[in-house]
Design a protein that fits this description.
single chain; alpha/beta; 6-stranded parallel sheet; two-stranded antiparallel sheet; 14 helices; 54% helix; elongated
């Protein structure tokens, strides 16, 4: 009850003094007379007159400095409050007095309130609670801007100190990398390095051929899976230090496979990958070709750098016929298969591997020349229980 009486008394005092006092004297007069008001309950806006006057003087000095520095902005926005009615002008004085009291009592209010905000408070915030919420919002916004400016100044200061330190080390002849553990490398630089390795493999080998002549036995869904595996193969191959050169053979322009491949690898024409509609027998000597097929009777013991290995571009989940082996025998090409049973104890599932698994096994085998390491690293763990000991 005492708080409500105090609030009503304060608001009446606001209005009565604003009607009678000039703008230059109403604030100090009110602040000197309000020390007798109760400060219990929820109405704790008042302190001793000396402390309030000191805070008010400091705030006034700060606002004067800010007004001096922003005279141009004030001239541009001065017309917003020039067309107020006499009643609105009197109410604006009450709002400014209320703002001064809140600021002096430590409530979260902004340091500076623009003319646009005064107009918003005057016409949109009719209650004290709505004005207080608006003050809190402006306070947080102002503090956020101040923090951003402070961080910018600190970062700029650090950059200036770093540049000065580098210049000093250059003069002394002791320039070293300031961050030699985690150097930043741009993506463009990494991609350029990958392209250089692929271009070197194109000129010097080894070459890995993909046979795309099995489109007629695959559905659209299987072709989509095939293109995804090709994309994975390229992504895994380009990041190694000594990659394979991919050669896409039997790829007819305009075919379903060609359309899906260009849709999945839109930059295919600019990549260091050879694409041709010719058969691999027209591109390489027959004696150097080795077709990798799971149905081949011969085990692949090691990779020969002089051989060109062929991988069938087929997703054979539903195809049980030995298509790749039959084609290799028809063309009188050597065949070979991975020695899975020699190094891995197979538990479940078929022994047909995806294209990306085949490529990764070849990459690791070329790097380490260790079948066990290459197979255990790239085969699905669910398909084998343990590895055999040599």
């Amino acid at each position: 009850m005492a708080g409500m009486i105090a609030r009503c008394f304060v608001r009446i005092s606001f209005r009565s003094m604003c009607y009678e006092l000039s703008p230059s004297s109403y604030a100090s007069s009110f602040l000197c007379t309000n020390t007798l008001l109760p400060s219990t309950g929820g109405w704790r806006y008042f302190r001793s007159s000396s402390a309030i006057l000191c805070n008010q003087a400091t705030k006034t000095s700060t606002m004067l400095d800010q007004c001096t520095n922003s005279s141009v902005a004030t001239e541009n926005s001065a017309g917003l409050l020039a067309d107020l009615t006499p009643e609105e002008s009197k109410r604006l004085k009450v709002l400014k007095l209320e703002y001064d009291v809140l600021y002096s009592s430590g409530v979260r209010v902004p340091n500076v309130v623009s003319d646009e905000e005064w107009l918003y408070l005057l016409r949109q915030c009719s209650s004290f609670s709505s004005r207080k919420k608006r003050y809190v919002y402006l306070f947080k916004t102002e503090k956020s801007i101040d923090n951003q400016r402070l961080k910018a100044r600190i970062n700029q200061q650090k950059q200036d100190e770093k540049r000065a330190h580098i210049k000093q080390m250059q003069k002394e002849g002791q320039l070293t990398f300031l961050n030699s553990f985690m150097l930043f490398v741009q993506d463009q630089t990494m991609n350029r390095s990958y392209q250089n390795n692929l271009a070197y493999a194109m000129m010097n080998g080894p070459h890995l051929v993909f046979d795309f002549s099995f489109e007629h036995v695959m559905s659209d869904h299987e072709l989509t899976n095939l293109i995804k595996q090709i994309q994975q193969c390229h992504g895994d191959n380009k990041v190694v230090r000594e990659p394979f050169h991919f050669h896409f053979c039997n790829l007819t322009p305009g075919s379903r496979t060609d359309q899906k491949l260009h849709r999945g690898m839109q930059n295919l024409d600019s990549l260091p990958i050879s694409v041709t509609r010719q058969n691999y027998t027209d591109c390489y000597p027959k004696e150097s070709l080795v077709y990798l097929s799971p149905n081949a009777p011969t085990l692949l013991k090691k990779l020969d750098p002089d051989d060109v290995y062929i991988v069938g571009g087929i997703v054979d989940r539903a195809v049980e016929d030995p298509l790749t082996f039959a084609k290799a025998k028809k063309e009188n090409i050597r065949t070979a298969r991975f020695p899975l049973d020699k190094y891995v104890k197979w538990v479940q599932g078929s022994k047909s591997l995806t294209l990306n698994q085949v490529v990764n096994i070849l990459i690791d085998l070329r790097r380490s020349n260790d079948w066990k390491e290459a197979l255990v690293k790239n085969l699905p763990k669910r398909k084998f229980a343990e590895t055999w000991i040599d």
